[in-house]
Amino acid sequence: MNPGFDLSGKIALVTGSSRGLGAAIAEGLMAAGARVLLHGRDAAALAKAAEGRAGVAGTLAFDVTDAAAVRAAFGFIEAEHGRLDILVSNAGIIARKPVLETSDESWQSVIDTNLTACFRLSREAARLMAPLGRGRIVVISSIMGILARPTVPSYVTAKAGLHGLVRALAVELGAHGITVNAIAPGFVPTDFTAGLHGDAAFNAMIAARTPLGRWGRAEELAGPAVFLASEAASYVTGHILTVDGGLTAAL
Ligand code: GCO
Question: Which of 30, 34, 84, 111 is most solvent-facing, going by the fewest CB within 10 Å?
Answer without folding.
Answer: 111
